[in-house]
Amino acid sequence: MINKYSHSYSITRYLLLVAIIAFIAQTLSAQQSGTNSELNIRLNQIGFYPDAPKIGIILKGNDSIFYLATIDKKNVFAGTLMKSVNPDFAGNITEIADFTTFNKHGKYTLYVPGLGYSWPFEIKSSVHHEVANASIKAYYFMRASIPLEEKYAGKWHRAEGHPDTNVFVHPSAATDKHSAGTIISSPRGWYDAGDYNKYIVNSGISTSTLLSLYEDFPAYMKTVKLNIPESGNHIPDILNEVLWNLRWMLTMQDPNDGGVYHKLTNAIFDKFEMPDKATAPRYVVQKGTAATLDFAAVMAQAGRIFRKFPTELPGLADSCLNGANKAWDWAVKNPDVAYNQDAMNQKFSPKITTGGYGDRIFSDEFIWAASELFVTTQNPQYLKDINLIPDNNMPIPTWSQVRLLGYYTLVKNSNSFGENAPKELPELKKRLLALAEDLVHGTDETAYQTVMGKSVRNFNWGSNSVAANEGVVLIQAFKLTNDPRYLRYALDNLDYILGRNGTGYSFVTGYGSKTPMHPHHRPSFSDGAVDPVPGLLVGGPNPGMQDGIKLPSTVPDEAYIDDYRAYAANEIAINWNAPFAYLANAIEALQNKLKM
Known about the structure:
alpha+beta, 19 helices
């Protein structure tokens, strides 16, 4: 016999549970989608330094006044909204809320009558400290060949994936001494992006950018503590993290001739599963000029940095420089070996269909590698046959265009050259500053008041890395001139990444009120945690839709969707996180220079 009272209680409990679940879902949805006011007030969702510029952008406002309010909605500052000179890409004039003069520490929200309140943010010193740290700690979460323990990884802990101690030499990489099927050991390294493969070309620019962050701001970076297994070993944590990938890169050089394998990879991409479940055979594939020169550049840079740690890392600097020299020699003998995956697959099997990172123009790689080797060794012979200025362009760095990395190195180390200084050095400094001026020109007339987004050309695959790399250019210009304008405009691009943009997202997982929850990242999809791995910069607006996923808008700066399938807009990648890590940490290191 059924007790009607217990049955009634069960129904009541069930309905209550349903109501609770619905409430939680509604709350989470509100947190991610935002109210009308939150969606139409765009600002850095982390916050602002007390004495630095503070800007919010208002869409669809209907008042001329804005207020700064405490979390309990007490107004503490009032200002007048100013209309943007130019419209956004959708054709709309925005309104600008400038509250730079307010500098009292606290947690606030921006209020516009008739529209409502913004996401909350803080005003305080070192306001970007946590997100800056997370941008580097993200690399720990990308490690291969090691379990991520809970005491370091929290709820994102996982089992070891891809030991890579039994990796096959692919037929495309075979030599007399390493025939096809030979097994080599190539552990460690970072997973490249949303997939589990490891690519020298993309590792090159990523590793170098993090090394440059330490090289440019050593005192500050020594204070950055990341809670990784190596913490406390008398080596700065950023270098500890770099070492995990650097030691893998060293295994990718053929010891017999100095050439460097293009990548370590499966034949096809893994399924969306955790790393320890992905057990397909792994291969090192064809050596190439781009990979070998990128390796040479990184190892030369690492050599001069790690020689400052002879006790902690005995012999490492020598190993790096030795590898750099062997790679350089191979590239000089093989100056035009392109990695063409389609052509390779016509000749060899198994066919490799993972990320190509193909490049057919190597003048920029020669410039970068020669510059790093010259600075480290002070031997002018490396630059002797290099055309340092082949054209009038100053292209923002990407994995396929690394010329500016060489220019940065030459410019910032120029005081050490003496009579060996390259004759092009004055022109390089002039062009670097001209690039910075071109970036900042007209920014104050744009709808979002940021360097990023002045042109539709900025919004391609990995557009957020464009914003970050523009910031790096401006930091370099500031270091060269000490002109605070460049630093302030670099901060604008950090504001862009963290919420002052056409989508209203803070594009870094886990940091901000409206952040990506479904990045194209296998562990974040598969680990059972609701929140994705934190500190990852997603690719950002890209109307190209190369993945076939329909976007809610094709307006260039709005062309984004938080969908794990949308790898053209929502993937993560080590070469995107690196300039963001540089920008966020450089701004933290230089925050006292931002005073208005």
